[in-house]
Amino acid sequence: MNQTLVRLWCLLFPAIIMLTAQVTAQPPHSTKMQKKIEDLRKIKLLDILELQGDQVEKFFSVYNKHQKNFESLREQLMQKSADLQASMEKNDKPETFTAKADELRKLIREMGKSIDARFDDVKSVLTPLQYAKYVVFETRFKEELQQRILDRVRQKRKDR
Questions:
Q1: I want to staple 100 with a disulfide (CB 3.0 to 4.6 A). Which of 84, 108, 132, 143 is the partner?
Q2: What percent of the chain clears pLDDT 70, i.e. is strictly above it?
Q3: CA distance linking residue 72 with residue 110, whole number of Å
Q4: CA 149 – CA 63 distance, rounded (Å)
Q5: Helices (DSSP H) in 2-127: which residue ranges?
Q6: Cα separations in angstroms, 141 against 4, 27, 43, 54, 148
Q7: SS3 for 72-108, per residue?
Q8: ∠ CA 48-34-15 to the nearest 5 degrees?
Q9: Does residue 34 contact residue 71 with C-beta atoms inside 8 Å?
Q10: How far apart are CA 118 and CA 66, in angstroms?
Q11: What is the pLDDT of residue 3?
């Protein structure tokens, strides 16, 4: 690892720890929490991909475009899910459940297409090795984040 990356890691590591700590204190689906998770994702991507020169700008230009679309779809999904939940609690007609559930499934498919499009588009700005690292990162990030949160909760319980 070169000196620049070591210095960058030394500066960013405390930020990652603080972000993880703050994420555990936020309610689920909080806008602040999502922003902090996304910031953590970007920090880790910079470290893992080892982007060079103008690659950083090209990568994040593509990535951010798709991320905005994904976040919009996620917000729609949360709203439609809440609508369906409210319908069930009001004991609406069965047809209402089916229609709203189908709307949710449509949004889920759109989210999948959005993710797939992001993979295709970032591939064009990354080397084959960077692309492979990106794919592995995206498949494991959520699981690693959940594990960090669980570890933090367990540690807090031990400290009590």
A1: 84
A2: 81
A3: 11
A4: 25
A5: 3-25, 31-49, 55-89, 94-123
A6: 24, 20, 12, 25, 11
A7: HHHHHHHHHHHHHHHHHHCCCCHHHHHHHHHHHHHHH
A8: 50
A9: yes
A10: 6
A11: 53
116: pLDDT confidence band, cut at 50, 70 and 90? Answer: very high
Under a CB-based contact definition with an 8 Å cutoff, are residues 65 and 125 in contact? no
Q: Which residue has the tokens 């047809």?
A: 95
The two tokens of residue 14 are 């405390």
Task: Determine the residue type at 159.
Answer: D
* 78 close to 29: Cβ distance less than 8 angstroms: yes
Please give the share of the chain, as a percent, with pLDDT higher than 90.
50
Report whether 157 contacts 80 (CB < 8 A).
no
Alpha-carbon distances, residue 117 vs 56, 66, 82, 121, 122 (angstroms): 19, 8, 27, 6, 9
Query: What are the structure tokens assigned to 89, written together?
Result: 């609690």
